């Protein structure tokens, strides 16, 4: 099991930023009702949306993560255990994970972009973290 991230760093447990951690990757609604105050919260929201999209894809394929990983060649460093932790929000998704799933799930790259843009354009970004108007 990986060691726990240091508090306040760039590495964090995404589901720890959710109002209900069991919701992570299993809902299309936001993780929190409040404002987004940090880039970590934005990242958690985006990972939550991507995890939910992957879960829906697997359901549409009439499979689950375990069966999918058993039947799909996985690159070095990627595994069922890792993906399970990512989809539950226990581990941060990396670009390597995202690139793998982008090659598996149709339109996931566009979905990830749309999810990030939706978070960036949201009215719920707190003042101290708000971006300048475009």
Could you characterize what this model shows?
It contains 5 helices and no strands. The protein is mostly helical and 134 residues long. The longest helix is centred in the middle third of the chain and has 22 residues.
List the helices and strands and how they pair.
Blueprint: H1 39-60, H2 65-71, H3 80-87, H4 95-104, H5 108-121
Low-confidence segments, ≥5 residues, pLDDT <50? none
Give the end-to-end Cα distance, rounded to a whole number of Å. Answer: 43 Å
Rounded average pLDDT: 87
Strand content: under 5%
Radius of gyration, Cα only, in angstroms? 15 Å
Question: Any key phrases for this structure?
Answer:
134 residues
How do you describe this structure in short?
With 134 residues, the protein is an all-alpha fold. It has helices at residues 39-60, 65-71, 80-87, 95-104, 108-121.
């Amino acid at each position: 099991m990986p060691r726990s991230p240091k508090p306040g760093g760039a590495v964090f447990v995404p589901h720890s930023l959710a109002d209900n951690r069991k919701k992570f990757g299993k809902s299309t609604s936001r993780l929190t009702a409040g404002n987004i105050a940090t880039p970590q919260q934005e990242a958690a929201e985006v990972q939550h949306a991507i995890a939910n999209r992957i879960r829906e894809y697997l359901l549409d394929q009439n499979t689950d993560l375990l069966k999918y990983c058993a039947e799909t060649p996985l690159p070095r460093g990627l595994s069922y255990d890792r993906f399970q932790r990512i989809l539950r929000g226990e581990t941060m998704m990396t670009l390597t994970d995202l690139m793998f799933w982008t090659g598996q799930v149709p339109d996931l790259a566009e979905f990830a972009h749309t999810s990030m843009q939706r978070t960036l354009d949201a009215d719920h970004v707190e003042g101290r973290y708000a971006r300048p108007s475009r």
